[in-house]
Specification:
heterodimer, A: about 290 residues, alpha+beta, Uridine Diphospho-n-acetylenolpyruvylglucosamine Reductase, domain 3, 3 domains, 5-stranded antiparallel beta sheet, about 35% helix, B: about 850 residues, 7-stranded mixed beta sheet, 5-stranded mixed beta sheet, 23 helices, disordered N terminus, binds flavin-adenine dinucleotide, CO_DH_flav_C_dom_sf (chain A), flavoprotein (chain A), FAD-bd_PCMH (chain A), oxidoreductase (chain A)
Chain lengths: ~290, ~850
Amino acid sequence: MIPAQFDYLAPSTVEEALAALAQHGDEAKILAGGQSLLPVLRMRLNAPEMVIDLGKITSLRGVRDDGDAIVVGAMTQHSVVGSDPLVAEHAALVSKAVEHLADVQIRHRGTFGGALAHADPAGDLGAPALALGAQFVIQGPGGTRTVPAEEFFVDLFETAIGEDEILTEVRLPKHTGWGAHYEKFVRVAHQWPIVAVAAAVRVDGGSIAEARVGLTNMGNTPVRAHAVEQALVGQPATPDGVRDAAARAAEGTNPPSDLNGDADYRRHLATVLTRRAVLTAAGATG
Amino acid sequence: MTATEARPEAEAPEREIGRERRRKEDQRLITGRTRWTDNIQLPGMLHLAMVRSPFAHARITSIDTTEAKQSPNVVDVVTGQDLAETQGVLINAWPITPDQKTPTHLPVAIDRVAFAGEIVAVVVARSAAEARDAAELVDVEYDELPAALDLKEAATDTVLAHPDLGSNKSAYWVFDSGEAGTGGNVDDAITQARDSGGIVLEREYRQQRLIPAFMEPRSTVVDPTGEQLTVWSATQIPHILRFALAATTGIPESKLRVIAPDVGGGFGGKLQTTPEEWITVALARRTGKPVKYTETRSESLIAAHHGRDQWQKLTLAADREGNVTGLKVQLLADLGAYVSLVGGGVPVLGAFMFNAIYKFPAYHFAVQTVLTNKTWTDAYRGAGRPEATFAIERLMDELAAEVGVDPLEIRERNWIKHEEFPFTTVAGLEYDSGNYEAATARAKEMFGYDELRAEQRRRRESGDPVQLGIGVSTFTEMCGLAPSRVLGQLDYGAGGWEHASVRMLATGKVEVVTGASAHGQGHETAFSQIVADRLGVPFEDVEVLHGDTQVAPKGLDTYGSRSLVVGGEALVKASDKVVEKAKTVAAHLLEASADDLDFSGGRFTVRGTDQGVAIQEIATAVFAAHNLPDGMEPSLDSDATFDPVNFNYPHGTHLCAMEVDTETGALRMRKYVCVDDIGNVINPLIVSGQVHGGLVQGIAQALWEEAVYDDSGTLVSGSFVDYLLPTSADTISFEVDHTTTPSLTNTLGTKGVGEAGTIASTPAVVNAVVDAVRHLGITDIRMPCTPERVWRAIQDAGSGTEPTTGAAAPHFDASTGMEGTVDRTAGAQDGAQQ
Ligand SMILES: Cc1cc2nc3c(=O)[nH]c(=O)nc-3n(C[C@H](O)[C@H](O)[C@H](O)COP(=O)(O)OP(=O)(O)OC[C@H]3O[C@@H](n4cnc5c(N)ncnc54)[C@H](O)[C@@H]3O)c2cc1C
C-alpha cells in the first residue's frame, strides 16, 4: 500500500521539533516508531502534509533512575524497556506488559511514548501506566508540564497532549518489592488483547497490603479498577481471599463489542483475569 | 567422441526416491532474489490502480474521471464503458447443471456492482504511487441497491443479488445412490431407523467463509510489444489462463504466451482467472506499453476469491449398535456475486466424499448453489473435500456419543476393512488401496490414547476448571484431479490429464518439462528425484522447467493434489520412452542385441560381460548423430501425456487432545498425532512440510479464521489484524508418521499429500473441543471455535453457535467513519445498566 505524499523532517532537538509543529499545525504528524502511524498512512486513513520524525532526538531515548521514579524517554523502544533492569526492579508491571506486546519486530521499532500517545484502549501499556500512577511529561511552546495518568488518557486515541506539544518522558513511581503480573487474553499470540489485566500488589505477612489494578480494553481509555484495589486490602493472597474482590473488576467499565468478543464476555473475562493476575502477582497460583 | 572412448564412469547415484532432499528451489524463493511477478521491470512500463466499489450492491449512476486524468503522470483513466468492446469476460468452466444461472462477469463493471470490492474504473500512470493517488480522485456516484448477504436468506430470494436473473438459486445438483444404482434409497433407510427404534441424527453445521491468504499477493505484468502478447501472472494455472484469455478476448491462442514465474503460494486462491488479469491485458493492448498491476493485501482480502461458506444439513440413520444405514446431505453453498472458474463445482467435488471411509448402504447428496452480494468463492485447499470430511467426522463422533461407545469404535464398526479393497463406495468410486486399521493402531499408540482418556475422566470427576477433550478424524479424500472421462460426465470444461517431456542434452544433462505449475510445493526437487532414478543420472543434472507456455506448451497446471500422482506419472512415462530409445542406440554401439542389455544406475550393460555404455554417452552420441542405427531419428527426447483412470485415495487417522479452560473458553492444544497413508513417498522432507502446513491450515479453520461481513456487506475482517492467521507461535509440534499401502492408480504407488492435512485436521480439532465439554450437555460449537463461543456454549449448555459480532476493532484510527468498526455504543448502553 502506498501512502499519500508528505514532506518529511527529522530534527535533532525537541525545540526544533516543536518549532516545526508550531509551523505546520494540524497538517503535521509526529513519527515515533511508526508502528501505528505507518499503517494509518498506508491505508490512507490519514494524510498529513508533514511528518516530523523524532528518531534523531537522542535525548528522548533511554531509562534513568530519578529518586522516587524511573524515567523512560518517549522514544525508548519496547525492546529496550522490556529488558531494562531498572524497570524490572522498580516497575516490574511494565516489564511484564512489554513481554507480550505485539511481536519481536514491532517491539524493536515501536516506542514507549508512541504507544502511550497513540492511546489505543487495547494497547498494553496504558493499564500498567495507570495502575502505577505514571506521570507524563509534555513539552510545548510554553514549556514543560506534567500530567498524571488519570488525566492523560482522554478518550479513544485521544490524550492530554496538545496539537503543538510532544510527549518527552514518562515517570514511573517506584514500586520496588511489589509483585506484578500482566494477564493478557488473546486468540493468537501476536495480537492486541481482547482484555488484559495489569496487577501490582504488595504482600505483607501473607496478606495483601496494597494493590494497583489496571484494565486494558475495557472502555475508551485504560481503566483503573479502584473497587478491586480497595477490596483486596487485607485479604489473604489465596484464591479464596482474592475471588470476591476480583469479581468487582467490571464495575463501571464500558467495554466494546467486536469480532473477538461482545461486551458482556469482556466483563466476565475481566473478573477471571483479575483474579489470576492478582494471584500471580502475589506469588500464589490458582 | 564415440561411445567407446574412455570417459569417467558416471557415478552410479544411490536411489533418489525416498531421500530427504532439501528443496533445491528454496534459497531463491526464501531470499526473494528471484522472479516474482512484481519483481519484473520492463522498459516504459505503466502501472495500474483499481477503483473499487465500497457498496455490496449498487447501480453506477456516473463516473467522473476528469480530475484523476489531470493528476501528475496519469496516462489514462478508463471505465467499464470504455473497455466494453475489448475487456472480454470471465468464464465459469464448470456449469454443474444445464440450467445453472450464471451472471455475466465483466472484469470492470459497467452499470451495476454486485459486491464491495468490484472494480469500476482503472487508472494507468507512470508509477504505482501516482496511479494510486489518482484513483482517489475518480468520482463515482452510486445508487445503493438492497444486498443479498446472508446465505440462508438469499436462498429464499427475498432480496436478489442479480435482479435480472430473477432468483439467487444458481444450480441444484443431486447424487442419489438409489438412482445411480450404487446403493439403496436413503429415505427408506431413515424411515426404517425411525420405525424400528434405530438412531436418526439430524445436525446442521456451518462451514464459515475463509480467505486463502497466500503469501504473495496477486500480480500481473503484460508486455504487448512482441509478436506474442506475453502475460506474467502470479497464478496456479498458466495454461488454463491462456486458454480462457484466448476464448474470451478474441486474441488467438497462438498469439499469447503466459508465464507463471515463481509464484508465492496459492492454496486454490490462484486457481482462478481474475478481473485484474483481464484488465491488465486490455490496458497493455490499449496503451501499447508493458503494464503492471500488483494488488495490496487489503485488495487481496476483499477481492481475491474466498473459500468454503456452506450450510450443511445432515441426516444420518443407524441401528442401535451404530451401524450406519443411510446418510442424507443437503447443502447450501454461497457462490458470492459470480460463478467463478470452478465455482459451483467445489461442493460437487465433496459430493463423493461424505461417505468417507465407511460402508454406508444408502446415500443422498444435494447442493443448492446460491448467489449473494459478497466476494465470489472458489477452491480453497481441499475444495469440497474438507467440507465433506468435517461433516461426516463430526457426525461419527455424535453417533458414538449416542450409542455410548468410543468414537474410534464406532468408526471401526463402519469402515472398509483392509481385506475388502478394492472397494466400490456408495458414491460410485473405486477405492484402490488402504488400511484404516493399521493407521489407526499406529496413531493410537503414538498418542497414548488410553492414558489421555484416563486423564479426561479424572478431570471430569474432579470438576477441574480445565477440561480435556480428544478429537478423532479418520479421513480419506479423492485427489489426483482427474480422470478426463469423469470430468466430462460432470460437465467440467476441460480434461484432467498431465503432460511431460524429458530432453537429454548433448552434455548428458537432462531437462524435464512438466505441465504442472509449482507455486511452493517443491516440484523441482521431487520431480528431479524421480527422473534421476528413472534415467540413472545425478539429481543435480536434472533441471525441471515449468510454468511458461512457450517452454511447457501443454499442461493442466497444479491443484487438487494432482501434480505428483498425475504429472509425476507423465514424467515416468516420458523417461521410460527416453530409456527405450537409448537402448536401441546402446545395442547399436555395443554391437549387441537389445534383448541382451540390462539398464541400471544409468548404464546399459551387455548381460554376462563387462561391456557397457552410460546414458549420458548415448546422449552425446545421438547429438553427434555420426553413428546411429539405420533410420533412427537423432533424438532421445520424449513426451508423454497421462490421463488417470481413477482418482487417488490417501487416508489417515488424526488424533487431537485439547484443553478447554471452562472459565474463559480459552483453548490449548496438548497433542496432535497424525498417521497418513499417502502411499510411497518420494521425499519425506517435502511430505512433512506439506503435512505440517496443511494441518495448521485446517486447524486455523477450526479455531481462528473467518471472513466476516457486516450488515451492509462490508468485509470487516479486511486486514490481518482481524482475519486471524496463526503463526508458529500459535501451534504446537505435531507428531507425524505414515503407514503405507501403495496406490494402484499410478506406477510410483504415490498418493496426493497436498491437501491431506487440511482436510483431516479441522474435524479432529472441533471434535476435541466438543468432547472436552460434552458432559456439560454441549453437542456443537460453531467454527471458528473462539474462546467467546466456547464460553457461551458452556454458559448456555448446548448452543455455542453464536455468530460473530460484525465489527472490527479500530487499532489505527478512531475517525475512519468506516462501517463495521468497533461498536462501542452497545457497550455503553449495557454499561449504563450496571
Ligand atoms: C501488527 C501490530 C501489532 C501490534 N500489537 C500490539 C499489541 O499487542 N499491544 C500493543 O500495545 N501495541 C501493539 N501494537 C502497536 C505498537 O505498540 C506501536 O508501537 C505503538 O502503538 C505505537 O508506537 P510507535 O512508536 O510505533 O508510534 P507511531 O506509530 O510512530 O506513532 C503513533 C501515534 O502517536 C503519536 N506520537 C508518537 N510519539 C509521540 C510523542 N512523543 N509525542 C506526541 N505524539 C506522539 C504519533 O503522531 C502517532 O499519532 C501493534 C502494532 C502492529 C503494527
